[in-house]
Amino acid sequence: MGERVYLTNEQARRFMLLKQGLLGDYRYSGKQGVLEYIIQAGCIQFDPIDVCGRSPELVLHARVKGFKKGMLYSLLYEDRSLLDYFDKNLSIIPTSDWPYFHRFRQAYRDGGRSYDRINEICDEIRRIIGEKGPVSSSNVGFDEIVDWYWEDTRLSRATLETMYFRGELVVHHKKGTIKYYDLAENCIPEDILNRPDPYPNEMDHMKWRVFRRIGGVGLLWNRASDAWLNIRNLKSEQRSRIFSQLMEEGKIIEVVVEGMKDRLYCLSSDGELLKAVLENQKFKARCEFLAPLDNMLWDRKLIAALFGFDYKWEIYTPVHQRRYGHYVLPVLYGDRFAGRVEAICNRKEKTLIVKNFWYEEGVRPGKRLQAAVLKRLKRLAEFNDCPGISVLTGVPLCPPDFLVK
User: Fold this and answer.
1) What is the CA radius of gyration of the chain?
2) How many domains does the chain have?
3) Per-residue exposure over 38-48, b if at least 16 CB sit within 10 Å of its own CB, e if not
4) For residue 219, what are the contacts with CB-CB under 8 A and spacing of at least 6?
5) Is the entire prediction scored with pTM above 0.90?
6) What is the per-residue pLDDT across 326-343, written as a single tens digit (0 to 9) for each?
7) What phi and psi values does residue 197 have, to the nearest 5 degrees?
8) In which domain, by residue range, is 380 found?
9) What is the pLDDT of residues 112-169, one digit of tens each?
């Protein structure tokens, strides 16, 4: 039988926040801190929408002291320490994890939409890249329309994306949202590129991924969850077997949280963080804005149960059904969610516009909290190269030195 610990709700919240690097002093700093956080998290999700920073940028801005957007893209497209690939949907992963996704690549080699037509031109795509260097779907020709996953598309796009899924190509760089692809052997070290699958057994592979997702969130339960997205063939029976095996192997710890029926689990390697919260150590309160796809929010039902915070990313919700706005960021203060902020960057005028702010029920917007929120807004504005901040009339903030419209 594996180890079991008992935590109060407050201790469990603090453990999760410490694991995520969102409570107390910053655990991560600078470009190296970006790499360290992503390695320990396994992956961060990518989304191209840029309202006040793209999702992975916001994830890192909340955790890495001194983070600049260029640090992430330098690690991706210069150092090649990180890689755009599929993990929890479209993600950024450590390049060193490439071998673990062999079966994902093999699935696309074995089949897929417009399979035969795509295979007919793969050699030609390789030849073009060999001559031209990295290419996008708009500069290789092949404008024929073919069946594709999201919608019918040009053969060039379908082929480049298929070769990317198969691991023949990788994203060399991006210009805005346009991807430029290069041959994988030009970007991934040979010893990593050709390393065999560490877990050829399907169950062992799923166990590795479940273990990794627990670490990516900090605390998870053995329940259906968006945290398991894109772990193929993972059913409740397999998941329960995996949790039992990880417990028997001493790799995870069962966590009993005051007032919660379901057991939670954390990595055994996070024992020092458990010790810190069990000793009720004091931690500096920080105010941070979380990205909609932040690792800590991967299981929103768990966040609701543990923090009493009900969050939905409403970008795909019809306007008349939205409670808040299409791109609203949760606001952390200390070990609680204090509110939600809707802010957009007007890049033409170099101004961060605060459209709205909602305090959570029961939160008293005292001077200390308001000062922390305003300081965090200034950081967000600077992060997006916006020297100006505009707080719209009626927004419940008291900005003494802000431009108010």
Assistant:
1) 22
2) 3
3) bebbbbbbbbe
4) 12, 15, 16, 19, 255, 264, 265, 266, 302, 306
5) yes
6) 999 999 999 999 999 999
7) -60, 120
8) 312-404
9) 999 999 999 999 999 999 999 999 999 999 999 999 998 999 999 999 999 999 999 9
